[in-house]
Amino acid sequence: MVAVWLEGVPDGDPAYSDIRFKASWLKTPVKASEWNGRRVALIQATTSVSPNTYSVRALKIPKGADGKDLTAVEIPGTKVLIRIADRKFEQQVFSVSKELEAVRSADNLNTDAEKVAKAKANGSTVPVWEKAFTIPIPGEEAQSFGKQRIINGVLNYTHSGVDVSGSEGTPIHVPAAGIVVFSGPLIASGNTVILDHGLGMYSSLVHMSKTAATVGTRVKQGDVVGYVGATGFATGPHLHWTLTIRGNIVDPEYLMNHDPLAAIR
Predict the structure, then answer these.
(1) Which domains are seen in the chain, by residue range?
(2) Which ranges of 93-186 would DSSP assign to H, the alpha helix?
(3) pTM of the complete model
């Protein structure tokens, strides 16, 4: 994941009212937000992107007399190259009961996904987080991002986040400032809190024994929003933390070492 921004955009020029960043590995350009006198966006690379050198360009989308979008025009001098390195993901093999396996049924996952999509429907278009992220359970490590999970002999899914160890009832802290957009039970995820960090980035903190957050509340890094549990599809108490950008999973460990906006804060 990288942050990209454009400086020197003419104020009030309608030709620059809609700016997007086109990454060559993504099908759809990412719409930029106005923030601190710049146009800024987060761009993610998923686990399926092949290692290679890619480009990112800034585009402006002019409007016709009828207000409709015209053909995108590249803004000269904005091309940058980004190297995506190779990364290997391990396999994780384990067995669960048929009852627990059924918790991740297609119907249950679809029901959860509808609730999550509704919660994320109107996210902040500007950054809410203020600095590098911290691990939600101090002193523990993030593990298992991207592992291919073979459950009961079947390649079931790619692990969508990181697991953080913790005994039942251990407080779970906010990894970075955000706005609570969901707090409550899901079927596969169990008791869950979802935080909007801005620019399309969300943290989901799941499998809690109970939540301690109210939807609409702005929370600070370090605030307690719930407690470790084993609700939903979980084989024992722990915290599962998923970080997404526009619905695509990214590794939270990167953000625990880097604030992608540090250079322009």
Answers:
(1) 2-84 (2.60.40), 91-264 (2.70.70.10)
(2) 98-103, 106-119
(3) 0.91
